[in-house]
Design a protein that fits this description.
Layout: H1 16-54, E1 64-71, E2 77-85, E3 90-92, H2 93-97, H3 99-109, H4 121-124, E4 128-134, E5 137-143, H5 144-148
Antiparallel strand pairs: 1-2, 1-5, 2-3, 4-5
């Protein structure tokens, strides 16, 4: 059998410039969406801490200044239930609101915190202080006031 040179392209494609522009636009939108996701989830984390400590009363006073997050092997962050008050006192949601409420609150918070991950590290990393590892996992202390101040857009 003799090989013959193709007589026409196997399939049509848009213009090369159009492909390039679409690829760059899609990548820019992807990275912008990732940064926004990081900002929004940092604010959500701050709101979750408030909700745990105030039983979802958005007008009630609370004293949390930082909360602990640990980084899983996949790069996602998870709340532990440990937090610090404005005067630097280390405590836990369990001590503040009881075991059941704390467990349910951390469970709810951890529905959102895993969206803080390696994909938006540039957003959350400036908001944290590194802590000693917990059970071999990197641990961080999230500044809740800085997280809450991030724009939602």
């Amino acid at each position: 059998m003799t090989n013959q040179a193709p007589q026409k392209p196997a399939y049509p494609l848009p213009d090369g410039r159009a492909i390039s522009m679409a690829a760059h636009e899609a990548l820019a939108a992807h990275f912008q969406a990732g940064a926004r996701l990081g900002r929004v989830m940092a604010v959500v984390t701050a709101a979750a801490v408030r909700d745990i400590l105030t039983d979802h009363d958005h007008e009630a006073p609370f004293d949390a200044a930082h909360t602990e997050l640990v980084e899983a092997a996949d790069g996602a962050l998870y709340g532990t239930g440990r937090y610090w008050t404005a005067d630097g006192t280390e405590t836990s949601f369990t001590e503040a609101v009881g075991e059941h409420e704390a467990a349910m609150g951390v469970y709810g918070m951890n529905e959102w915190t895993p969206y803080l991950d390696h994909g938006n590290r540039d957003v959350w990393k400036p908001l944290v202080t590194e802590l000693p590892a917990r059970n071999g996992q990197p641990a961080y202390r999230l500044d809740l006031a800085k997280a809450a101040a991030l724009p939602l857009d």
